[in-house]
Design goal:
- It is a single chain.
- This protein has 376 residues and is of the alpha/beta class.
- The chain folds into three domains: 12-96, Nucleic acid-binding proteins (OB fold (Dihydrolipoamide Acetyltransferase, E2P)), CATH 2.40.50.140; 102-282, Rossmann fold (3-Layer(aba) Sandwich); 288-357, Probable gtpase engc, domain 3 (Ribonucleotide Reductase Protein R1, domain 1, Orthogonal Bundle), CATH 1.10.40.50.
- The protein is 32% helix and 20% strand.
- It contains ten helices and 13 strands.
- It has helices at residues 5-8, 18-29, 136-147, 179-189, 206-212, 227-235, 286-291, 293-300, 316-323, 328-369, and strands at residues 33-41, 45-52, 55-62, 80-84, 92-96, 102-106, 114-119, 123-129, 165-171, 194-197, 216-221, 261-263, 270-273.
- The strands form three sheets. The chain has a six-stranded mixed beta sheet with strand order 10-9-8-11-13-12, with helices on both faces.
- α4 links the parallel β9 (165-171) and β10 (194-197).
- The protein is globular.
- 38% of the residues are buried.
- Bound molecules: guanosine-5'-diphosphate (GDP) and zinc ion.
- The site of zinc ion (ZN) has 8 residues, from α9.
């Protein structure tokens, strides 16, 4: 039987494949080790999983070489890196490989406007608790975020690839009686997306979830959605500490986590843990069109190609709203996210413009100080 090289590689369970092998070959030829980042630590260090004989081992490596002040370019859990094992010294990450997918949200933090949550995932499982009222608008937002995972700056110049496949995982099914009803509602706002109903408590739906997460899967959702519990159930071990209370307390969990890249038991792929998210601002617009594909399709039927979908004659969107084929809730959700996206884009452009101006001014100043001509 023919065994491909990747099938025999110890990192195969962590997402290694022939494409990574090819991308890495110049670096492996140079004596660097391919590895996958399992956790980013303070002090410009990260834990990297590398092959070791038939198995794997964890290296603590410095990331100063590939460190960037740009949060989009900062090493993240799930990154593939080339590591200098530096026998006798401290291992160091030398190369950060282009990413295939990246999950990025906008933040309101003073330090940065974007946060890369996870990279190089094949699936994005949006975890939503059935135990509290399901917020369809929030799921739509997560779906748009997931649909943007195949594009944008965070890919680090890699070949453009499609986004990771989104899944909606409705958790804690044991706590409700109308799970199927809610599932139908969620399916209505998630065209083409698999929606699962699971309970880590009773095991309901867990086999299907396993089958739907063959590669690298990022688990996202609000704190308290049941991500840690699902992770433990899929890993077949208590790798995550589960919250004692049901309130959405985001504190502390990650301090107890040794790694954020967790193999699913019995060779079923790998989970990428992300922090619980209270807010999920979109970052970049491409995902919206996909998450609201039926609205984009409707809009193509408008008489005017630049229809604003308000009072224009022959507006297919208004017609669909009038006859009930498109719900007002869905339409308003789309409009709201689109506005938000435009605002983010303008803010980003404004920031880039300001940065460019600042740089240009400082160049001008230093050149003037040297008495030279201003060239740019
Ligand atoms: P995370 O913040 O998303 O990681 O959520 P946790 O996994 O910490 O779960 C939050 C709470 O929900 C904890 O009290 C869990 O015990 C509870 N929980 C998680 N999954 C289930 C489930 O399938 N059934 C029930 N009844 N409770 C669950
Ligand atoms: Zn229209």
């Amino acid at each position: 039987m023919y065994l491909s090289t990747s099938a025999a590689h110890p990192l195969t369970g962590y997402g290694w494949d022939d494409d990574w092998a090819a991308d890495f070959s110049p670096y492996t030829d140079a004596g660097l080790l391919p590895g996958r980042v399992a956790r980013v630590d303070r002090g410009l260090l990260c834990s990297v999983l590398v092959a070791d004989g038939d198995g794997t081992r964890m290296l603590r490596a410095e990331i100063a070489d590939v460190s960037s002040p740009d949060p989009m370019r900062f090493v993240c859990t799930g990154d593939w890196v080339a590591v200098d094992p530096a026998p006798g010294g401290r291992p160091a990450v030398r190369v950060l490989m282009p990413r295939r997918t990246a999950l990025v949200r906008s933040t309101n933090s003073k330090r940065s406007e974007a946060q890369v949550l996870a990279v190089n995932m094949d699936q994005i499982a949006i975890c939503v608790s059935l135990a509290t009222e399901v917020d369809l608008g929030r799921i739509e937002r997560f779906l748009a975020l997931a649909a943007s995972s195949g594009s944008g700056d965070a890919l680090l110049g890699g070949t453009a690839r499609p986004p990771a496949e989104p899944l909606v995982v409705l958790t804690k099914a044991d706590l409700v009686t109308d799970a199927d009803h809610i599932r139908a509602d969620v399916e209505g706002i998630a065209p083409g997306v698999t929606v699962l109903v699971v309970s880590a408590e009773t095991g309901e739906g867990m086999d299907v979830l396993r089958a739907c997460t063959p590669g690298s899967t990022a688990l996202i959702g609000q704190s308290g959605a049941g991500k840690s519990t699902l992770t433990n159930a899929l890993a077949g071990a208590d790798v995550m500490s589960v919250q004692q209370t049901r309130s959405g307390d985001e504190k502390g969990r990650h301090t107890t986590t040794a790694r954020e890249l967790i193999p699913i038991s019995d060779g079923g792929g790998v989970l990428i843990d992300t922090p619980g998210l209270r807010e999920v601002g979109l970052y970049g617009g491409e995902g919206l069109a996909q998450a609201f594909a039926e609205i984009e399709e409707l809009a193509e039927g408008c008489r005017f190609h630049d229809c604003g979908h308000h009072t224009e004659p022959g507006c297919a969107v208004q017609a669909a709203l009038a006859d009930g084929t498109l719900s007002h809730r869905r339409w308003e959700s789309y409009v709201k996210l689109q506005r938000e996206n435009e605002w983010i884009a303008s803010r980003t452009d404004a920031r880039l413009a300001a940065e460019r101006l600042k740089k240009w001014k400082s160049i001008t100043k230093s050149v003037r100080a040297m008495g030279g001509p201003v060239k740019y």
